[in-house]
Amino acid sequence: MGQAGLTGEVRSSVWPPLTCPFGLRRIRFPAEVIMVAVRWYPRYRLSYRDVGELLAERGVQVDHGTVYRWVQRFTPAARRRRPLRPARAG
């Protein structure tokens, strides 16, 4: 299976892996990067640009429009797998 950190490097020669979660085939970025972006957006109440900037700080250059498409496409599948809770106030 392809595994990647937030730096965008794929540590396996096989990408995409044979069994991709959430239908992530033919996606440019590793599944872990996409799921981090999808998790951060609602969890920390960030804007799409903020998520893109956080990923850029970690070496992954992503446009805010791409983050928007990821959130729209993969949030329902992520919620079925694990509910996304907003951050606690205070």
Q: Quote the beta fraction.
A: under 5%
Order of helical and strand elements: HHH
How far the N terminus sits from the C terminus, by CA atoms, comes to: 39 Å
What is the number of E strands? 0
**Low-pLDDT windows of residues:** 10-19
Computed over alpha carbons, the radius of gyration is: 13 Å
How would you state the average pLDDT, rounded? 76
Overall structural class, as computed from helix and strand content, comes to mainly alpha
Helix content: 40-55%
Shape: globular
* Number of contiguous helices: 3
Largest sheet: none
Question: What features would you describe in this structure?
Answer:
- By secondary structure, the chain is mainly α.
- The chain has a domain at 21-81.
- 46% of the residues lie in helices and 0% in strands.
- It has helices spanning 31-43, 48-57, 64-81.
- It is globular, with a radius of gyration of 13 Å.
- 17% of the residues are buried.
Quick structural gist:
The protein has 3 helices and no strands. It is mainly alpha-helical and 90 residues long. Helix 1 crosses helix 2 and helix 2 crosses helix 3.
What are the salient characteristics of this protein?
mainly alpha, globular
Question: Topology, pairings included?
Answer:
Blueprint (H helix, E strand, L loop, with lengths): L30 H13 L4 H10 L6 H18 L9
Helix pairs in contact: 1-2, 1-3, 2-3
